[in-house]
């Protein structure tokens, strides 16, 4: 029975789809950064954006929650919202959620060597991806060209800025804000970047 189970388990892993998973649970900026990294890695590992998945826990502002309520009480009329992340349905297009959202990863099939700092080169990561032992590859938010020493920094930055970020499908209300920002940016002349805070 054990031999049959091991054989069927091996066959299943041989044909399973693999995914790079954004699994951050902190601020919105960190989550988007991790999603961009996941898109980059999914494509570099030989897949496409179809091989990127994301997990999402929302932390909505709540007066009774010390973590998400104001950290500063200097002015009783001013509340500073702390940890607060909207629902995925508010931020992303339904089609994007349907294709990429994942409720959970099977712990037995989850590769954590990258997020745990055990792997620091793309060559090793690619060999592990090709081994058919894992289905889900979780990652950290640091730039991939820093985490993985054999990734070209300029190639990584170019892909993320010119392709990866634009593959995320935002909800209509968020897309309107992005479109307005792009139009308004034309009036600014030259500028370097728009900073999205990790928190």
Number of strands: 4
Cα-atom Rg, whole angstroms?
20 Å
Q: Walk across the major sheet and give the strand order.
A: 2-1-4-3
The residue ranges in which pLDDT falls below 50 over 5 or more consecutive positions are none
Summed up, the helix count is 8
What does the model show?
This protein starts with a helix and ends in a 14-residue tail after the last helix. The protein is globular, with a radius of gyration of 20 Å. The chain has eight helices and four strands. It is 41% helix and 6% strand. The chain is of the alpha/beta class. α2 (28-44) crosses α7.
Jot down its keywords.
8 helices, four-stranded parallel beta sheet, single chain, 4 strands, alpha/beta, about 5% strand, about 200 residues
Summary?
About 40% of the residues lie in helices and about 5% in strands. It is of the alpha/beta class and about 200 residues long.
């Amino acid at each position: 029975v054990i031999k049959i189970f091991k054989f069927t388990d091996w066959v299943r892993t041989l044909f399973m789809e693999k995914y790079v998973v954004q699994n951050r649970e902190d601020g919105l900026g960190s989550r988007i950064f991790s999603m961009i990294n996941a898109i980059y890695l999914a494509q570099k590992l030989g897949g496409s954006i179809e091989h990127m998945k994301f997990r999402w826990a929302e932390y909505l502002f709540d007066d009774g929650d010390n973590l998400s309520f104001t950290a500063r009480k200097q002015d009783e009329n001013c509340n500073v919202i702390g940890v607060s992340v909207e629902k995925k349905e508010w931020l992303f297009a339904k089609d994007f959620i349907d294709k990429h959202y994942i409720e959970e990863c099977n712990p037995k099939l989850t590769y954590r060597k990258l997020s745990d700092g055990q792997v620091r080169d793309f060559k090793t990561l690619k060999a592990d991806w090709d081994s058919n032992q894992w289905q889900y590859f979780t990652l950290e938010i640091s730039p991939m060209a820093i985490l993985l020493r054999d990734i070209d920094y300029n190639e990584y930055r170019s892909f993320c800025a010119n392709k990866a970020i634009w593959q995320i499908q935002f909800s209509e209300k968020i897309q309107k804000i992005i479109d307005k920002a792009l139009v308004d940016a034309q009036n600014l002349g030259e500028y370097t970047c728009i900073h999205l805070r990790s928190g």
